[in-house]
Amino acid sequence: MLLQKYFESRFELIDEGLKQALDFDKKHAKELKKAMFEAVIPGGKRWRPLLLLSIFEMLTGFKKNRRLPDAIKAAVAVELMHNASLVHDDLPIIMNRPLRRGSPALHVEYGNAVAILASDALYTLAFEEVGQIKEAEQALSVTQILSTYAKSYGMVGGQAVDLLNKRKLMKINTLRYIDMKKIGSLLQASADIACSLCNTDDNTRQIMNAYALNLGLAYQMIEDIEADYARGSDGLDDDFVPVSKASYTGLLGFDKARKTAEGLLDESVRMIKPFSDTAVLLEFVSMIKERLP
Q1: Tens of pLDDT, residues 89-135
Q2: Measured CA distances, 168 to 161, 175, 247 (Å)
Q3: Could you count the other beta carbons within 10 Å of the beta carbon of residue 11?
Q4: Within the chain, what is the greatest distance between any pair of CA atoms?
Q5: 18 DSSP 8-state letter
Q6: pLDDT for 134-165, tens place per residue?
Q7: In b/e form, how buried is each residue of 171-181, taking b as 16+ CB within 10 angstroms?
Q8: Three-class SS state of 99
């Protein structure tokens, strides 16, 4: 119950921060600003900003912390960037997804041009948020981290590789690289930013980065397993072939995909064992593991 209250309270802080960031003067560019708002609110699970706050508070202590507002600013920035990337990813010229979270994708509702502009504006808004972190040195550090994980060697690079391989026979190393970048980059950025705000040592940063990346890869593997189970197989039918070969179940098979996901999550637990107050981080692992069919 205490963990549930923690997540609910932090979710509220993040959503409040997002709404403040998206509270524009509606006098000009009304459609653009409305599209930006709808791209973010209501949103998804807020895993990335929740992870950032959880790591930050684990390292600084869960009691009232005067630096928490800075961590919330950074968490809001990460979530804005995540949603910006989703708008781009959904576009017809990229992955052509008509739905997002059960509703029409932004380009379906507003057209391609407004969707592209809204996404671009969300990216810039993310950097405006981290620019408001009180200490200039920390604001600069967070900006550099966010830029590094978003650029062509990070999240955007993952989108590019995914697009390049859209109609090719996928290899497991390529699929893993795509997910490390598209999914893992902002999770790692969240962990790295939390550590930067706490001025932790390099070893702690490496452990938290690896923990976050493992969560992202395991989550995607479980999504693939869930998707193929939903298509009518219980995973035990020897004649069943997963629909998509560009998935972990299609490339590894159910059993190996499941074992790999479980191994990543177990490794995450081992990584954070030396730390104290890890209940929240352990709950992230449990929530992902519970999704295994």
Answers
A1: 999 999 999 999 989 999 999 999 999 999 999 999 999 999 999 99
A2: 11, 11, 13
A3: 16
A4: 61
A5: H
A6: 999 999 999 999 999 999 899 999 999 998 98
A7: eeebbbbbbbb
A8: strand
Which one-letter amino acid corresponds to residue 51?
L
Using alpha carbons only, what angle is made at residue 208 by residues 72 and 194, rounded to the nearest 5 degrees? 20
The residues, ordered by sequence, that sit 6+ positions from 94 with a Cβ below 8 Å of its Cβ are: 88, 159, 163
Query: For tokens 């959904």, what's the residue?
Result: 90
* Chain centroid offset of residue 150 CA: 12
Tokens of 54: 């959880």
Is residue 206 within 8 Å of 273, Cβ to Cβ? no
- The highest-level CATH class for domain 2-285 is mainly alpha
Indicate the residue type of 15: D
| CA–CA gap between residue 213 and residue 220 (Å, rounded) | 11
What's the predicted TM-score (pTM) here? 0.92
Say whether the peptide bond before residue 293 is cis (omega within 30 degrees of 0).
no
CA distances from 184 to 28, 145, 155, 293 (A): 36, 14, 8, 22
CA separation for the pair 97, 87 (Å, rounded): 10
Supply φ then ψ for residue 44, to 5 degrees. Answer: -95, -140
Nearest to 18 by CA among 85, 74, 102: 74
- Whose tokens are 């509220």? That residue is 12
Q: Is 70 exposed, middle or buried (0-12, 13-18, 19+ CB in 10 A)?
A: buried
Domain spans of the chain, in order of start: 2-285
C-alpha span between 57 and 65 (Å, rounded): 8
Q: Are 193 and 78 in contact (CB under 8 A)?
A: yes
State the number of CA atoms in the 13 A half-sphere of 264 facing the CB. 23
The residues with which 81 forms a beta bridge, in sequence order, are: none
- pLDDT tens digit string along 48-69? 999 999 999 999 987 778 899 9
Contact 35, 118 (CB under 8 A): yes
**167 secondary structure, DSSP code:** T
